[in-house]
Amino acid sequence: MRGLVFNAPKDVRVTDVPDPGVVNPTDAVVRVTKAGICGSDMHIYNHGDAFGFDAGCRLGHEFVGVVEAVGPEVRSVKPGDRIVAPFWLSCGECHFCKKGLTTSCVQGGCFGFQAFWGFGGHVEGGQSQFVRVPLADGTLVKVPDELADVDDKVLLPLVDVFTTAYHAAKGSGVKPGQTALVIGDGAVGLLACQAAALLGAGNIVLSGHHDDRLAVGARLGATHTVNSKANADRLGELLGDLTNSFGPDVVIDAISSADSMVHAANTVQPGGTVSWVGMEVFLGAPQLPWDTCFLRNLTIRGGVAPVRSYLPELWPLVISGKLDPSPVLTHDLPLERAAEGYEIMATRAEGSVKVCVSPN
Length: 360
Prior knowledge:
- By secondary structure, this protein is an alpha/beta fold.
- It folds into two domains: 2-159 and 306-358, Medium-chain alcohol dehydrogenases, catalytic domain (Quinone Oxidoreductase, Chain A, domain 1); 161-302, NAD(P)-binding Rossmann-like Domain (Rossmann fold, 3-Layer(aba) Sandwich).
- Helix content is 29%, strand content 24%.
- It contains twelve helices and 18 strands.
- It has helices at residues 39-47, 95-98, 136-139, 152-155, 161-172, 187-198, 211-220, 234-243, 258-267, 290-295, 307-320, 338-346; strands at 2-8, 11-16, 28-36, 57-58, 62-70, 82-85, 88-89, 109-110, 130-133, 141-142, 179-183, 203-208, 224-227, 250-253, 273-276, 299-302, 329-334, 354-358.
- The strands form four sheets. Strands 3, 5, 6, 9, 10, 17 and 18 form a seven-stranded mixed β-sheet that branches. The chain has a six-stranded parallel β-sheet with strand order 13-12-11-14-15-16, sandwiched between helices. A three-stranded antiparallel β-sheet has the order 2-1-4, with helices on one face.
- A hairpin with a 2-residue loop joins strand 1 and strand 2.
- Helix 5 crosses helix 6 and helix 6 runs parallel beside helix 7 (211-220).
C-alpha cells in the first residue's frame, strides 16, 4: 500500500509500505478515507530526529475510515462500519479509561508517533491507505447512523483538533456570558472559538498573526479578532474595553510557548484560568511567573484531550447541525500529494489553515 513516511527533517514522502493485517485478536484494520495533517505533525516535520523518529516511520494520527477486518475478540465494530479513530489508543477497561481519561490508558499509545507506539511491528500512521488499530474496542468509535451521509470533513476534526479545542474550553471553565481570550490562529485556536461559543461565552477574542485565519475564526464563533502582530496595542485596549480593565475571565492558549504562556498569565484577570493545549511546551518549558499566579489566584490547566470520552456529548451537536468544524480544513489533497500538504502548512501559505488528504 501507499503511506507517508518521515525520512529526515523537512523530508517526508509517500512511498510503498507494508500492508497491515490483524496481528492480535483485539486488532482491527481500517481503510482510511480521510486523514489530517496536524500541527503536531509539523513538529515532527521540523524536528523529528530530535524527537527520536527513525527514517521510514509512518506518520499521521488523525483519520477516519471504514473497518476492513477485525480480530476474533473485537466486538464493538465490524467490517463495513464507518468509524472515527481518536488519536490515542485506549483499552477502555483500565482505571484511567473508566475515569474517562483515555489518554492515560495503561496500555495506550498514539498513531504515527514512534515514542508512543508499543504494539509491535511497524509504527502505524493514518496518512496511509490502511491502518492496523490495536485495542480496537477501546479505541474506534462507530459513526452514528444519523450521520451516515455526513461528509468526512465534518468528522475528521473530531478525532483531534476540535476535541483538543473543546478540552481546552472545558478546562478553562468558561461560563455563559464570560469573556474568553484565545491565543493562536492555528486550527486548534480557531476551533477553541467554536467550542467557547458552544459553552456560552459572551465575548470571544481571538488573537493571531494572520488576517485570513482570523476571518475563519470569526466564522467559527470569535466575536472579536485582533492581529496582534500588526497591531500590538489593540489587544490590550480591546480587552480593557470589554472587561472594565479586569482582563478576560479565561485564556485559552493554543500555542503554549514560553512567551504565550507568560502573556496568558499576565493577561487573565485575578481568579481566572489559563487553559493550555499547545505543543510548543515540548520545545522549551515556559517559565511562568509563579509569584504572579499565586498572588492573583490563577488556575493553570492543560493536558492531552481524551477524545473518546468527549464523543458521546459531541455527536448530538453534530447531528443537530450545531457543530461543524470543517471550515478549518482548507485543503484536501490526494495522498500522493501529502508532502505538498506538509509544505503548505510549514510555510503557512495564504488561505491555509489545515490540510487533509484522501488516501482511497
